[in-house]
C-alpha cells in the first residue's frame, strides 16, 4: 500500500512539473503589413510598418486586416525558428477569392506567382494558397508576399504540414458532400411534389435546395471531380458566387409564397420582390461580367445579403403575428441559417472575425431544409387528402352521390390545416331549395328526390372542375371553392341564375324551383365550425328575403345581401 501511495505521489509531482515547465520552442510566424505609396515591382527596400501580427505557436493563425485601397499590398514575413530544406512545412494563405493570384518571394529562392487552388494551384488547399518553401526558411531570413486587389476580408497566414492540410481538406470535403447529398435528396422530393401539384411553392424550394447544395460542394473544392459539375467548377469564383446568389433569389421567391405575403403583408411582399430583383440584377452582372467584376462583386453581394436577412426575419415575425400557420416553421428553420449567413458575409466584409461561419453554412442549410421539408410535407399531405376526399366513393350521399356533410367537414379541416402555406382564400356556399316541403306534399316524395338529383346536376354545371359539392341534411347543398370573395359571389350568382333560367321537368310536371344561398370566405385562424356557422347565418338572411337571393356574411357585421331576388328567366345573369 505504501509503495502504491509513493508511486501516485511521484506521478503527481511529474504532472505538476510538466504543467509548470516552460513550453518548448516552436516556430512562430510574424507578419508585417508594409505601408507603400507606389505599386512596386519588387519587395520594398524599406517601408514603414502599418501593422504587425504574431501568430504564436505553429499552427496558429496570423490575422492581418488590410486597409481599404486600390492596388497591391506588401507583407513581410519572418519566423523565430529555422526551417530546414525538405522539411514538411508549408505557408498557407487564406483570404477572399477576389484577390486572385499572389506573388510569393520565399526565403533564399526565386519569386513565383501562385494562383488560387482549383485554378492551377495546389490541390492541398481548395480555397486559398499553399506556398511551398523550396529552400526552407533559414534563420533571420525574410519572405515577402504581394497581394493584388481590393478586399475587406482579413488575410489569414499559418504554417502547416502537408498532412495537416490534407486532413483538414478531406474532413471538410466529406462534410460538404454529406450536406450536398441531403440537400439534393430533399430537392428531388420537392420536385416530385411539384410535379404532383404544379405549385411554384415547391419548385422554388427545390431550386433553392439545388443551388445551396451545389454552392456547398463548390466551397469544398470537390465539385471539379463530379461529372456534370466539373464545368461549373472550372469557372472558379464566378460559378460559386452565381450559385450563392441564385440560392438567395430562389429563397426570396419561396418566402413570398410560403408566407402568403400578398394577402397578409402587401408591403412586405413589395420589399421581398425588390430584394429578389436586386439579387437577380446582381446575378446577371456576374454572368455577363465574369472575372472583370470579381474585385467588387463579393463586396456588393455580401452587403446586400446583410441587408436582406433582417428584412426577411421581420416579415416572418409579422406574418406569424397575423396568424400565418406555418410562419413558426419558417422562423425555426431559417433563423439559424440567416444568422450563420450574416456572420459569413460580415466575415467577408471584415466586420467580424468568424472564419468558421462559412464552414457552418452547409450544416445550417441541412437543419433548415429538414424543418421546412416537414412543413411542406404536411402541406402536400393536406392537399392530397383534399384530392382524395373529392374523388372517393366513401362518405357520399346515397341519393345524389355527392359528398356528405362529414366528408365536407373533413375537407374543410384539411383546408384549415393548409393555413397560409400556398393556399389561396377559399369560400363556402350553403344552398337551400326554397319551399321544398311544398314540392314533396304536392308531387310526392319520389318527385322530390328527382328534384334534388337534378338540382345537383344543375349546380355542378356552373362549378369549376376543382370545386367540391356536398349534400347537406334536408334539402340543401354546400359548395367549397378555392377563390377570393368576389369570385365566390359571382359563382353564387351563377348558381342562383341557373335555377331561375328554366323550371325542372319531371314526370310531365314543370316545377319552378328557386334557391337561397348563404356564403362566407375563410378567415385567417378561423375554425371550421365558426366558418360553417357564419355560412348558416348568411343562409338564414337569404331565406328571409326571398327566392334566388345570395347573402354573404361579413366578419364583424351582419350578413349583407349582395344579390337581388330573381324569379324569372328574363332576369338571368
Automatic annotation (TrEMBL):
Record protein name field: diguanylate cyclase
Signal peptide: 1-25
Positions of the GGDEF domain: 424-555
GO molecular function: diguanylate cyclase activity
Enzyme Commission identifier(s): 2.7.7.65
Catalytic activity annotation: 2 GTP = 3',3'-c-di-GMP + 2 diphosphate
Regions that span the bilayer: 175-195, 202-221, 241-259, 271-290, 296-320, 327-347
Natural source organism: Lysobacter koreensis
Keyword Coiled coil: no
Coiled-coil annotated residue ranges, if any: none
Keywords: Membrane, Nucleotidyltransferase, Signal, Transferase, Transmembrane, Transmembrane helix
Matching SUPFAM superfamilies: Nucleotide cyclase
